[in-house]
Amino acid sequence: MDETRIVREAYGQPAPPTPDEIARARALLGGGSGRLDFAGPAGDAADDVQVITVGPAAAPVPGRRRRFGWRAQAGVGMVAAAAAAVTGIVLLGGAPAEPDRRPAAGPGPKAARDLLLAVAERSERLPDTRGRYWYSDQITGQSYIIRVPTGPYAIVGAHDEFFQWSGARAGDGTAFYGRRLPARPLTPADEAAWRRAGSPGKFRVWSNDHFQTYMRKASLWKIDDPDPRGGGSFFLQGAGTRFTTEEVLALSADPAKLTALFLQADLLVGPKRAEVLRKLKRDLEPMTPAAKLGRVAAILQNVPISPKVRAGLLRALVQQPGVRVVGETTDPLGRRGVAVTADLPPRPSPGLPDPVITNEPEEEKGDFGSRDELIFDLQTGELLSEQTVLTEPGGKYRTQRPGFLINYWITRDDGWTDTRPKPPGDQPF
């Protein structure tokens, strides 16, 4: 890790990365080259990727976590500090169908907290089953508002799926796959508005600091630099190093020890980062509540921890100042869970800071309020989705209501198996 990256990770909240940037970070830390490109400059399918055209968008249907072999508790994970701060990406629900999910609408703080602790207890009681290969299937996406004369509507763009597996032992191999999912209207109301606009097959939107075109097409899975000699270790964000599979599975489930290892900023800085900070005469800034959510998500998404350690992380998280449990909710695949949130300061629409963007369209400008949110499965405590939720309309989301999901990173499935995993053939939406 170079010193520029060390400083960038140590300080501040950089602009949220795009899904493609996060994918490259994942591929790099997962052993890939980061060259997992699904689209050309305008968002069309790349020449070397076969494209499958799909039909009209359907309303999201309740999903479930697929069950391949034994279950585990991890995902490919947000490994970059920026990605951990911003959470993952796709979005469900335009304003007509999106409920008001502000904390005040949920149960009382004690009832919500008790619900999460009950989830932790259920997780603790699950069998600690293992296999030869651990895999994770995750989906990203970003919300965009299409403004046309016939009426605005919301879509999911930057819509990708990633599949990764790793052998439990060194030499069992690793692989990372990706595919582009179709851009689509979000809800039946959005689909109706899309049809009134002529049912366009592509969507040109402002994304970060440029215009991007997303297509109603899907690509085939593309593998990125498989390593037949890899496996046997996992990167634990916060600890700053790779752990062997045995070390991961032997982590303490004590909430206090997990807090000391992962949720205290002074203990999260390795010797090299600490030296850079000393040279700059800077003090390490404490972790924000949202950063702690991101850290827990990264652990749950990156490594196959045991059900007891997952329970310990939930208990540690609920004790952190500024972290709130807001009760039951639904993830973007329709799965029920309990939501844990932390507020973010008002900020401009995702992308580079406003002063740097000189060509930003007027309708994209302006601040909005949001919070980071993790949704945990009610029965197992597994992380279903890491997402950003609108709390104060503004900027590009000025027409949306509180509760609108700005982006997400879904864990569609993860687990252990004794047979070499393969990406799923069916699409999630």
Automatic annotation (TrEMBL):
- Transmembrane stretches in the record are 74-95
Keywords in alphabetical order: Membrane, Transmembrane, Transmembrane helix
Q: Where is this region: Disordered?
A: 342-368
The superkingdom listed in its UniProt entry is Bacteria
* InterPro entries reported in the protein's UniProt record: CU044_5270-like
Q: Which NCBIfam families match?
A: CU044_5270_fam
* The protein's name: CU044_5270 family protein
| Organism (species) | Actinomadura rudentiformis
The taxonomic lineage of its organism, from the top, reads: Bacteria, Bacillati, Actinomycetota, Actinomycetes, Streptosporangiales
